[in-house]
Amino acid sequence: MNILVIGSGGREHTFAWKLSQSKKCKNLYIAPGNAGTDGIAKNINIAIDDFDGIKQLIIEKNISLVIVGPEAPLVEGIRSFLLSDSRLKNLKIVGPGTEGAKLEGSKDFAKNFMNKHGIPTAASRTFSKDTLKEAKEYLRTVSYPIVLKADGLAAGKGVIICKGLKEATTTIDKMLAHRMFGAASEQVVIEEFLSGIELSVFVLTDGNTYKILPEAKDYKPIGENNTGPNTGGMGSISPVNFAQGEFLKKVEERIIIPTINGLEADKIDYQGFVFIGLMNVKGDPYVIEYNVRMGDPETEVVLPRIKTDLVDLMIATADGTLSDVDLEIDSKTASTVVMVSGGYPDEYEKGNPISGLDNLVQNTIIFHAGTKRDKNQILTNGGRVLAITGLGKTMEEALDNSYELVSKIHWDNVYFRKDIGHDLNTLV
Ligand code: AMP
Ligand code: GLY
């Protein structure tokens, strides 16, 4: 079967790596891909928002399965765009349609969905420019800190936690009156602050049934001990030691089952990943956000723990036959350490040559996130450049492997966090 992965980050490299291991994968294409995917897949220089270009590629290369990596094409309706062409009516797509993608594309939609289906989440209210006055009045009545969220996609920057009334009032003004995040902040969700420890749970659904994939913990802030501004993610670990047994049972019963049933009840046909961002508040799970795709860098620790053929899993998801597939999970631990360009998440340089990529360390995998090839060199080409995954019997062993390889790779101004996983040690 010919397969297309859409995207260019570490998540998509990981998908390509895993799909290429399947005997059922004949030709693997990735649009646009990066220097790491070049070789295990055929990189095709088509942007993720060039729907016409993607459609032509699918027809020309006789592609029968498409996996959409990032959220933007899903929110923009790539699924219905492709399926509405009579030549592509049998195309298998992993990723929801526009209605399902609203779970990520609109925080207000997600909140209404959770409230309607009794899914535990922080109390909230939504305001627009027309109700700015009411929003400010509401801010006088809440307890602090309080969380302000742009309704739409804001490249991971749309959530602002305000410590007091003054900051919250200025921020709501910026978001609603001055369109701080453009169209994304035409509506703002004001949400109660939840205090606890976060983790991500991933579910694959074919619209009828679901499979729970390995959970992961993501490290979002740039600085050690979770300080400084948020990034796309600086590292991740799977499994998560505090999220086993009883807690995961609560997640399944209180969150996953009502989510899958809610999609069905609301007639939202959904084939793809549901990424549930959770807060563990004193042993009880609350949803912080839904995403309609896999996480990055969570994919870099989740897929290496899945033993089942990924092509089989993806076909079953698209075809509605997920209940026929046995999901086999490896009990070992996976860790990933993200190596970034100095300055990220603010300004950073691109085009620095990377050395040390040929080093071999057992039980490690190098996933490229932001790289490009220039003749015989691999250059940095993004904020997040590489994700170095290590595997081991324990978290310590996995992290030792990741960090051993990290220490052998270099470029000018490279930066990475040295404390991935440390907080989990203190929790057991
Ligand atoms: P999001 O873009 O929704 O993932 O939010 C970004 C980050 O903001 C999350 O990873 C949390 O760390 C934090 N956050 C979001 N909502 C809340 C909340 N209700 N309480 C506490 N922290 C939150
Ligand atoms: N690592 C968080 C995300 O992919 O949204």
Count the beta strands. Answer: 23
Q: Can you tell me the overall shape?
A: globular
Q: Beta-sheet strand percentage?
A: 25-35%
Q: CATH class of the largest domain, anyone?
A: Alpha Beta
> Given the helix and strand composition, which structural class is it?
alpha+beta
**Helical amount:** 25-40%
Largest sheet: 6 strands, antiparallel
CATH topology of the largest domain: D-amino Acid Aminotransferase, Chain A, domain 1
Mean pLDDT value: 96
Radius of gyration: 21 Å
- Stretches where pLDDT is under 50 for at least 5 consecutive residues are none
Q: Which molecules are bound besides the chains?
A: adenosine monophosphate, glycine
CATH architecture verdict of the largest domain: 2-Layer Sandwich
What number of domains?
3
Distance between the termini: 45 Å
Number of helices: 13
Under CATH, the homologous superfamily of the largest domain reads ATP-grasp fold, B domain
Descriptive tags:
Dna Ligase, domain 1; 23 strands; five-stranded parallel sheet; D-amino Acid Aminotransferase, Chain A, domain 1; alpha+beta; globular; single chain; Rossmann fold; six-stranded antiparallel sheet; binds glycine; 428 residues; binds adenosine monophosphate; 13 helices; 29% helix
